[in-house]
Amino acid sequence: MRPIIGVPLRSEVDSEGKCLEYIYDMVRRAIIKANGEVLTLAPIQDIDYFKTKGNEIPKLTEDEKKRIDFYLDLIQGLFIPGGSKFCEYDRYLLERAIEKNIPVLGVCLGMQLMSCYKEDVVLEKIEDSNIEHNVDLSVKYAHKVKIDRNSKLYGILQKDEINVNSFHNYSVTPNEIYKTVARSEDGIIEAIEYPSKTFNIGVQWHVEKMYDYDEDAKKIMDCFIKEASYRKTIITEKVRDYV
């Protein structure tokens, strides 16, 4: 069976100004192509996540945390997608996924969330760079990134440098726990990793958009799904012990 990949929904408004929660179709299809099954994870608080400012969102209750833990027990991997903002719900998902050793892949905003793990949110607007980091969606490659050889990302790709797409206006600052493993030529952090054996990588570019035409993006997605498959095998073996 394919591993179940949890994907947090993102918030937006429709043409009438009504809030909706959505998943990018490219995310859904890339996970399916990589042999995963998609399980969407909807925010659980009774609030308008799009219109409510991040610092005005109520803290999660213990009951709400237990419900999130239940969701996490259903999945074998967590894909944190791009979007316009994240909240405490997303931060708790990441925190518990790490504690439960669930493989995690974050892209764009997802990586920015990971960069704030156990720290205050600090994102800096990109200015005075000779690289365009927010290009049109039709552009396949925006710039290059250089990869640290002492990283899991390098182990997956076996390359010092790759070409990536780019759709963001803000950059992350170094995190005390997550290791910076790739930068663009202007010094912007482009990839980070959590120091554990479990797959836990954040990339600033959108690998799901590149899955059909870029071998490096495909390798990252495929490795993530493979790691999730391994976790599913472990869970299955544990269940058999009780049968």
Largest sheet: 9 strands, mixed
Number of helices: 7
Relative helix content: 25-40%
Question: pLDDT under 50 segments (min length 5)?
Answer: none
The radius of gyration is 18 Å
Distance N terminus to C terminus? 19 Å
The helix/strand class is alpha/beta
Q: What proportion of the residues form beta strands (DSSP E)?
A: 15-25%
Question: Main traits of this protein?
Answer:
7 helices, alpha/beta, globular, 243 residues, 31% helix, 13 strands
Description:
With 243 residues, the chain is of the alpha/beta class. The chain has 7 helices and 13 strands. It has a 9-stranded mixed β-sheet with strand order 4-1-5-6-13-12-11-8-9. The longest helix is centred in the last third of the chain and has 26 residues. The relative contact order is 0.16. The mean pLDDT is 91.
Task: Give the helix/strand layout.
Layout: E1 4-8, E2 10-13, E3 19-22, H1 25-33, E4 37-41, H2 62-73, E5 77-80, H3 88-99, E6 104-107, H4 109-115, E7 123-125, E8 143-147, H5 152-157, E9 161-164, E10 170-172, E11 179-184, E12 189-193, E13 200-203, H6 207-210, H7 215-240
Parallel strand pairs: 1-4, 1-5, 5-6, 6-13
Antiparallel strand pairs: 2-3, 7-10, 8-9, 8-11, 11-12, 12-13
Helix pairs in contact: 2-3
